[in-house]
Each structure stands twice: as C-alpha cells, then as structure tokens.
Amino acid sequence: MERTLVHMVWELIKSLIFGIVEGITEWLPISSTGHLILLDEFLKLDATDNFKEMFDVVIQLGAILAVVVIYWKKLWPFGKQDNPHPMAQTGFGACLKKDILQMWCKVIVATVPAAVIGLLLDDWSQAHLYNAWTVVIMLILFGIAFIWIEKWHKNRTPKMSNIASLRYNTVLMIGIFQLIAAIFPGTSRSGATIVGALLLGVSRTAAAEFTFFLAIPAMFGASLLKLVKCGLPSTGMETAMLLIGMISAFVVSIVVIRFLMSYIKKHDFTVFGWYRIVLGVLVLIGGITGFIG
C-alpha cells in the first residue's frame, strides 16, 4: 500500500513538472511540444500512450486560461462601458466593441490554415514527426531564423505597430507560419508566428500579443480534437494528473506572459534563437551517443 501511495504521489509530481514546462515553453518561442517530447525521454508518465497523447495537448488549456485572464479587457467584445468604438450608437450595437470584434475576425482568418490543413495532417504528423529528431532539426532551423531575422529587422521601422493595423492578408500569412508549427514539433507555435510576423513588418510587441490571441482558438480546438480522439481520463488518478498539469501550466503562464511582454520592450528575440540552437545541438549529441532514444 505504501509503495502504491508513493508511486501515485510521484506521478502527480511528474504531472506538475510537465505543467510547469508547458507554462514556460508555450509562450517563449522555444517550442512547448518539443520540450514535452524531450522531457518524456527522461521523465515518462506511467500512463497509457492514449492518455499521454491527450495530456500533452489538453494541459495547454491551463496556459490558454492565463491569456484570457491577463487580456480579458482586450478579448471580451461586449459592454457599453469603456467602449470608444461601438458598432452603433444605440441598441444592441452599442454593446459591441468594434475594435475587439475586428481583432477576432483577424484571429479567425489566421486560424484557418492550421484548422484545415493541420487537421488533415494531424494523424500523419503524430505518427511520423513527433520524435526527438524532428524536434532537433526544427529547434536549430528556427533558432537560426530568429537570429537572422532579428539582424535583418534591427534597423527597420515596423509597418504595423499594433493589432488594429494588421491587414487580413498579413494575418493569413501569419496563420500559414502557425501551420508549420502544427505539423513540425520543435518549431514552436509562438516562435513560428512571431518569425512570420516580424518578416511581414509587424512590431515585436504586436507580434507577441497577436500570437497570444491566436493561441486561444488554436489550442482550444486542438484540445477538443484530442479529447474526441483519445477520450476523457478513465480513472481518478488520470483526472488528478490532468488537473495538476493544467493548474501548474496556468500559474506559470501568468508569470511567463508578463515577463515576455516586459522583456521584449527592451530586448529582441536573439537570445531565444541561441537557446534553441544550443538545446538542439545538445539533444543531437545525446541522440548520437545513445543517451536519447
């Protein structure tokens, strides 16, 4: 009985660690999926493959709730108070915030590529690309991309400094970059969309903020699909593991989002590029030497 209790506590601690890693890496452009795959090489959950596949995706809901809490006023499109841009001066339109509704339209447009093409390729990607070797390649490639783009971007004035100035063709292109991350683990959803936004002339702050908002439908949709495919937790232990992972991801995400938005006001993303390259090289060495399977 004692060994069983110790085992259960250890599994809950591992779930906590997975949630912390998710909360840190979801918002920094270093790939949450890639880090969870690598973490699984060293700290495997004692659960079925079906549950682990669902767990890695659904704990992202905790991270998403952090965005909703922090940016609630910029996300909720209803209310007469603090509404400088109503859809109409009277009636129901006076309760609609035009600028926020326009933002959501842009988010929906940017979501289309990953929602359509990513969905079609999800099973194939899961079967063939969700491994440490794909993670290594994408970590290094996008690490180099970040360093190069920041050098290219350094002396340029952004064409679009806020979400309101984003054009629909721009957000569609950002959505295509998100599609790359949906297919190739290790790319980083936030990293891919930020790289794409910077290339298109979007400021760092607007790129990061739009990436946060874009994550809401993307990750809610991904979580729903995994729950449909894999089912709900089948035991009380699995439910506890999932809840701990989600709660820890939520708490850590609150801290990380605030840190990132403060950080990019004075710094660029180059440090994350170097981090990706160093991590990719270390994992590559681990794979070659047989330390990582």
From TrEMBL:
Q: According to its UniProt record, which reaction does this protein catalyse?
A: di-trans,octa-cis-undecaprenyl diphosphate + H2O = di-trans,octa-cis-undecaprenyl phosphate + phosphate + H(+)
GO CC aspect terms: plasma membrane
Q: Which GO terms describe its biological process?
A: cell wall organization; peptidoglycan biosynthetic process; regulation of cell shape; response to antibiotic
Name the enzyme group at the top EC level: hydrolase
GO molecular function terms attached to this record: undecaprenyl-diphosphatase activity
UniProt keyword terms in alphabetical order: Antibiotic resistance, Cell membrane, Cell shape, Cell wall biogenesis/degradation, Hydrolase, Membrane, Peptidoglycan synthesis, Transmembrane, Transmembrane helix
Q: Does the keyword Methyltransferase apply?
A: no
Domain of life of the organism in this record?
Bacteria
Function description? Catalyzes the dephosphorylation of undecaprenyl diphosphate (UPP). Confers resistance to bacitracin.
UniProt xrefs under HAMAP family: Undec_diphosphatase
Question: Under which name does UniProt file this protein?
Answer: Undecaprenyl-diphosphatase
Q: Which organism is it from?
A: Ruminococcus callidus ATCC 27760
- Gene name, please? uppP
